[in-house]
Amino acid sequence: MLRPQDSATRERKSLSGLWRFRLDGAGEGRSAEWFKGPLANAREMAVPASFNDICADAAVRDYFGDVWYQTVVRVPRGWDGQRVVLHFESATHRATAWVNDAEVVSHEGGYTPFEAEVTEHVRAGEEARITVVVNNTLSFQTIPPGVIEDTPDGKRQRYFHDFFNYAGLHRPVWLYATGRAHLTDVTVVTGLDGANGTIEYRTEAEDAGGAEVRVVLRDADGVEVATGSGPSGRLTVENVHRWAPGDGYLYDLEVQLIGDAGDLLDSYHQSVGVRTVVVDGTRFLINGEPFYFTGFGKHEDFPVIGKGHNDAFLVHDFELLKWIGANSFRTSHYPYAEAVLDYADRQGVVVIDETAAVGLNMGLAGFFGTQGYTTFSPETVNDQTREVHAQAIRELVARDKNHPSVVLWSIANEPESESEAAERYFKPLFELTRQLDPTRPVGFVNFMSHPYGKCRVSQFGDVVMLNRYYGWYLHNDELNAAELVWEEELKGWASEGKPILVTEYGADTYPGLHSVTTQPWSEEYQVAYLDMNHRVFDRIDAVVGEHVWNFADFATTSGIVRVGGNKKGVFTRDRQPKAAAWALRRRWRRDG
Ligand code: GCB
After folding, report:
1. Cα(300) to centroid of ligand 1, in Å?
2. What is the model's pLDDT at position 369?
3. What are the strands of the beta sheet with 251-258, ordered from one edge?
4. Whose CA is nearest to atom 10 of ligand 1?
5. Residue 215, SS3?
6. Strand (E) or helix (H) holding 103
7. Is the pTM of this model over 0.90?
8. What is the pLDDT of residues 105-114, one digit of tens each?
């Protein structure tokens, strides 16, 4: 699937704005065919946004089940004779869509795009009614998993991850047009050969008959630097300007479909950053140079709009990354909006790209108020879950394979990884990811209860990724003890000969709480905690990265260990720096 764009042959219309919206607590809308007419008793809802925090109403915030969205769009007059497609960048966690009375598409998974050709259901110049039912219920057969429990307070959706289950249409929705003959996929793989760069490209097209494929590569000034022909091939760029951390240099690869008469049937622009990624012993090499990750695990999480994509926050968050000296982040704990990856490409910011497989770990259930489940069993995380997980990996790689910023796939966060069942579950998923993308390393993020010597899944990873809270959840307020055990564990992992990325370390910190005696929760403790961690990392050569948890405070379910959400942010939720932000800036920027 190609991301919608405007080109010489393509045109798109954004459906962002206010849609009609209605909860369907009784689950009656599908059988009552609410898509067949104007959505009755609806309120208005912003798209893109999570619906949860928009209405000042607990019934909306904590709602789970079907919600309905509807809009009416006038199809541009000029699209007569064109192929028309309805494209959703995401719908969390699943959706079915209708155009007028016709069902056109269903999709499972909350963070990857889906689309349907709707040509036969619309007419150029006329209105079309678009209705979507979005469902946010989690089960053991979804990624991430969750359960619905009967409680004296009624049914409750519970889940095993530490962020609020925001839902809705979080990202833009598009209607777009192409010619009948059209490109459906472009893949690029880049390499370096001395001063030159290589780009292997592969294209796919539909209804293209005998159309010829031509490609033109232009540099950032628009100067043509290479051309090729055929559905796949290899281009060489002399004296290539490499894509590198801090230097998001991009070429533009225009792929053209040319008809018999030499006419341009389709044109698609794919940006290309020429770089290599290799794991060599304990080193992580980008363009052959050792790379040390500084940055954060982030969230898509903002006041009011929840996980809704917003360009102002996008640019602002990257400005803060630059300000603090971060060169990278992880898309914890799900694939982020494509605009984020595009921006990371242009900014030269390195990304660890993660699936939504978070909370496959019933060892954490007590923490989230649920009890008594076994992670891997026929009734809980099972073969069907693994197939959903595999599909999530396929869709992630298909969507993000061409981003130079993406250097590493993270296929899960903190799953149960000590059992034989875990080994059986994960082995094929690692194999699948490598088969889908042999060019990038693959890993998963290990949980502190499955430390060195106990984890049975790390053997499959090209890198070791560790979330560790020594000095917070363990040895709280005992930083000396924490330092000793942490170093001891890291030495164990280092003996495995793989690069180690510390993907999470952090301490909850209430902004404005100060303490001359460095008490936990104070801004001073967060700084002392980070300093302790950094002393340890600096003594272990195999550590090739430090991602603080978290970039900013974020919303979670309520609970006795969460004070208005998770407070491990280095910035507050509205992006004001805590003392730790200044401390990190001093460590990471060195220029002060
Ligand atoms: C973790 C999880 C992350 C949590 C964090 C915490 O290990 O990966 O999702 O938010 O710990 O703060 O407890």
Report:
1. 15
2. 63
3. 224-229, 212-218, 251-258, 264-272
4. 162
5. strand
6. strand 102-108
7. yes
8. 999 999 999 9
592 pLDDT band (50/70/90 cuts)?
Answer: low
Q: Helical H runs in 91-143?
A: none
Ligand 1 atom closest to Cα of residue 332: 9
Q: Residue written as tokens 């509807």? A: 70
Q: What is the dihedral angle through the alpha carbons of 587, 355, 14, 183, rounded to the nearest 10 degrees?
A: 110
- Tell whether ligand 1 has an atom less than 6 A from the beta carbon of residue 549: yes
Contact (Cβ atoms closer than 8 angstroms) between residue 135 and residue 92: no
* Residue 504 falls in the annotated catalytic set: yes
- Specify the pLDDT at position 282: 98
Tokens of 333: 């704990």
Q: What angle do CA 265, 266, 270 make, to 5 degrees?
A: 160
> How many angstroms separate the CA atoms of 31 and 133, rounded?
12
Ligand 1 site, residue 467, Cβ cutoff 6 A: yes
DSSP 479: H
How far is Cα 133 from Cα 106, in angstroms, rounded to an integer?
9
- For residue 18, the cross-strand partners are 46
Which of 476, 501, 549 should be mutated for ligand 1, with most atoms under 8 A from CB?
549
379 is catalytic: no
- The conformational region for residue 326 under phi > 0 = left, psi -120 to 50 = alpha, else beta, is beta
Tokens matching residue 362: 């019933």
Report which protein residue has its CA nearest ligand 1's atom 1: 467
Backbone angles phi, psi at 589, to 5 degrees: -95, -30
Q: How many Cβ atoms from other residues are within 10 Å of residue 31's Cβ?
A: 7
- Going by CA atoms, what residue is nearest to atom 2 of ligand 1? 162
Catalytic residue, from 89, 338, 483, 504: name it: 504
Beta bridge pairs of residue 404:
none
Per-residue pLDDT tens digits for 85-94: 999 999 999 9
Q: How far is the CA of 410 from the centre of ligand 1 (A)?
A: 15
Whether 245 has a pLDDT exceeding 70, the answer reads yes
Distance 566 CA to ligand 1 centre (A): 9
